Amino acid sequence: MKWMTVQTQDGLRVGYAKGEMLQLVDAATLQRIVEGDEWHDAGEPVPLAGVRPEIPLVPRNIICVGANYRDHCIETGLAIPDKPVIFAKFTNTLAADGDALSWPEGFTDKVDWEAELGVVIGRRARGVSEADALSHVFGYVAANDVSARDVQLGEAQWVRGKSLDGFCPLASTLVTRDEIADVQALDIRCLVDGEAVQSSNTREMIFPVAFLVAYLSRAITLEPGDLILTGTPAGVGLGLKPPRFLKRGEVVTVEIQGVGSVTNPVAGPVARG
Known about the structure:
Elements: E1 2-8, E2 11-18, E3 21-24, H1 30-34, E4 46-47, E5 52-53, E6 62-66, H2 70-76, E7 85-89, E8 94-95, E9 101-104, E10 111-112, E11 115-121, H3 130-133, E12 137-144, E13 147-148, H4 149-152, H5 159-162, E14 168-169, E15 174-176, E16 187-192, E17 195-201, H6 209-217, E18 227-229, E19 251-256, E20 260-270
Parallel strand pairs: 6-18, 8-14, 9-20
Antiparallel strand pairs: 1-2, 1-5, 1-15, 2-3, 3-4, 6-7, 10-13, 11-12, 11-18, 12-15, 16-17, 16-19, 19-20
């Protein structure tokens, strides 16, 4: 199923896509469904064109994996890790499909894109095995781990350069695990003004999804609704020669096969205060 949270005349509603239609359900939030609450269809399907998609849900945590594609490590000069590189983003970074990307004027001039597969936990995971890990996953979402490279790489921790307001756009669809036959066989792309700057496949991950869920669960109890961003492949602006960063007026899109896409116009630097 492809779950969505949308803005209607009656406020925020939850539903699942059926072609060009959306079947609304009686759940208050998608988080409640992720947690296992019972739900039922509510009325007749409505046209998707008549509603405004929002982010599917607000995660409790956003856990990120860095340097998880070998070619990305090589292009950016990072050492190939022998264990996952873990950091975090905060929920202020969340943005919906169509929201404009902006950042404080004078703070950074090196804003970069990162196409990433997002994994949403559906069942508590604590000390789970790799073999059992995917059974704890509710579904998948396309994400853009937008990054201020000069800030990220100029500090000991990556969090501030990764956690500017709106720096985690999510696709409007959260696709359930059963829809994806092999999560390690999905094409993943990023386009800037229609040009494919990243084009890879999730099979190129150094640490696959099941390993990451198991690895994280050894130290962190993963709860329903937690979001794991699983890293980005080669083709980020920092790795291009010469480097290229997002500019006002551009449009950036992340696409993941079978999962969805998220597109955001770039508003660029804005006065803050």
